[in-house]
Amino acid sequence: MTQTTAIRLRREITRHPAALTVSLLTGLLSTAGSLAVPLITRQVIADVSAGRSVNWLIVGAFVVALASSAAQGGSAYLLARIGSHMVYRIRVAVMGHILRLPVQHIRTEGAGALTSRITSDTLMLRQVIDVGLAQMPVSALLVAASVAAMAWLNWLLTLVSAGVFAAVGIAIAFMFKWIKANAIEQQQALGGIAGRFSSHLDAITTIKASGAEDTVEQDLSQEADRVRRIGLTGDVLQAAMLPVLAGGQQVALVAVILVGSVQMSHGTLSVASFSAFVLYLLQLAAPVMLLFTGFGRLRIGQAVKERFNTLLATPREQDGGQPGARRPETPEAAGLDTTGIVFDKVSYTYPGTAQPALSELSFSVPRHGLTTLVGPSGAGKSTVLSLVERFTSPDEGHVLVLGSDVDAWPLSELRGSITYVDQSFTLLQASVRQNLSVQHKQAVPEGALWEALASVGLTAAVKALPDGLDTVIGAETDLSGGQRQRLALARALLSDTELVVLDEPTSQLDGINEDRFRTIIEELSRTRAVFVVAHRLSTVRSAQHVIMLDGGGLVDEGPHDVLLKTCEPYRELHTAQALS
Questions:
Q1: E strands along 349-471, which residues?
Q2: Is residue 557, in this structure, part of any structural domain at all?
Q3: In this structure, is residue 401 part of a structural domain?
Q4: pLDDT digit string, tens, across residues 5-15
């Protein structure tokens, strides 16, 4: 699977050359109108002084002003379209990349921080187009043309104005450096509070049951205050730009009036030319401000782009399938026709921890039948499942699935050969139909969906939903914990994979539905390998093969009845479960 291409602002902006060209042309038209109005005003004053009619000049001034405004509006609309398309492309690319990152990296980054990349980060990047690269050339042209016209009218007044604006520009240039650093800090802080709030919402039932709303609110308010303080610093920096520029304009205007008054008193400057010059000076503030703001947005956009590209440079899950390595076409081709899963001296330690989760673990799961994995909490059961699905890779040893090392499998084929139901019975916030068929590339016949729901006793519950199979669950409408668990099992029923992996699948099932589950498992295990992390005794008793772990190592394995007689730790675990 190829790595996501890095974001380049110039490439993103020029993806729509026709719209960009028209936007620039309308921007130029607006600029021409802005330049023409002071000159028309100059001519009006001169004609009035000479007693000539100015009716057509006044009409022309209104027409030029209206045309300039319309052109500016059209340019802004086209830029908005370009910006919305850019945000769409970046969001899709970033979401697709995040979905393909290693599980451990996603958990380390946090859902909130990653979510902020496709919300606030993309909106900040859009400002690069709204105020940045596309409008800056037009603004620069307007500034240059205005300065040229001002120099043509009076070079001395132009020098006075340029000196003042140069001093203002130096001050604002220093502010840009602080604005960029603050923008990065703001995005990190927003990602942090989003992550904290998201984790608290995931634990909302515990919070409410513990009456901990006030404590959690205080914790979040401290985080929010940090975000507020960082944001306030940025707001102050942004707000300071306008008075600095406005102050510079006022100083320039006062200087121009003083120098212009002296020139007019000596007869070297006409009132008409002075009026046109002042109009140019007054309208110069807007494009100059846009230039400064544009440079600021570019600096912020550069910082946000670097955050995006750092994320996009994070390696995706390695697809596997090294050159020359192929999945065996048949079990016999691998010489492992009786095994579904093999762990060969596997060791694994989670990053940042010293104690190994697994230590030289070896066992095998038959290619057909039910195998259960048992052990006390912390024994390494969940780590085993993560290695089977290749959510992570072993530090030492080898994991084989259906006859091939997991690293030799193309990732899509590996997971396409396994049906996996986690211990949280995770469902998508999507329709019942989508949840049932999420592992299928083609649409699943509706009859098959209802048959699977009937097998787990969910027919009546789904028919009672507002839109039946098309009801979106997980938002306004949801299922109970046991119903969600049975829906996840129905999804497993619809699969035709060679390996079914279930993590504590009966934890929320009542006696009737557990009997249904046992029947389903017996049916599945006739034709495929069913590998279950189990705590319920009924599941263990029906298994042909039981594997017991403790402390990341193998304690013993064999049939349930045999282990009861020969394995003291298993017998103790069995007794403890029976008592509970």
A1: 358-366, 369-374, 396-401, 404-405, 418-421
A2: yes
A3: no
A4: 777 777 777 77
